[in-house]
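DM from R.C. (forwarded with permission)

"hey, sorry to bug you on a friday — could you get me a structure for this? deadline for the figure draft is monday and I only need the backbone to look sensible"
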Amino acid sequence: METLTRRRGPDRDVKRPAASGPGDRGTLRRAGRILTPLAYTAAVLAAWSAYVTLADVPSYLLPAPGDVWDAGLKLIRDGTLWPNLTYTLRNIVLGFVGGSLIGIALGWVLWASRTVREILAPYMVLLQAAPKIAVAPLLVLWFGLSLTSQFALILLLVFFPMAMATMLGLKDVSADISSLGRLLHLSRWQYLQIIQLPAAVPALLAGAKIAVIDAMTGAFLAEYLASERGLGYLMVLGNTSSDTPLLIAAVLITVAVGLLGFGLVSLAERRLLRGRR
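My reply, with the result:
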């Protein structure tokens, strides 16, 4: 018995590795979300640098990543970036908010009135189908080289996806919930505020993801055609002065602004819809 006890004793002291819990798996997933885009970016930069070096591409056609980085740092050091960046961000935010409000209001009107929907829907589709690069010069002609023409272009790009998202979201209210609203004798405003808008939140957020990118596109296009400030103006400056590193740096900064806006809307979507999943 003593021999068996002595043999079993050390086995009890052996420490087994702890199994990874849900917290560890969540940490790994979060790390993967961060590291995966970084790995893709590093691969693209490496391929870009290798192509420029091996093919001996002239800098005015495609500069090396280091040259673009230096151009971006120069924009920061000489104070050129911040006034132009804040100018574009202001236009994007104001245009996105204004276009969203117009789109939501118009979407509700189109949903509530069949007559208005039959009258306005074809014109809305035609307006959205028109190439904005052709509409922008008309806005400049009508409103001049001012903020009005720039905001008008952003509003044209933003309101349509928000109006369509509003219509789809309001249609998502189930028949049972609609019947409950009638039983409670809710007014049209109470029905919209208590029942319809909460039900339309997923569709509105999906439309906002498209609208925020459209707002960035409209701001860039307006500044490219009729502005002396903004990221679009920096692109024009790089193009006219044959400063390709500056041009590409301005393009990459604009892309980063668009990704930031999309990420903020996605973050709001996760927070607001957390309880529905």
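R.C.: lifesaver. Confidence is low (pLDDT under 50) at residues 1-14.
me: no worries. Residues 136 and 157 are 11 Å apart (CA to CA).
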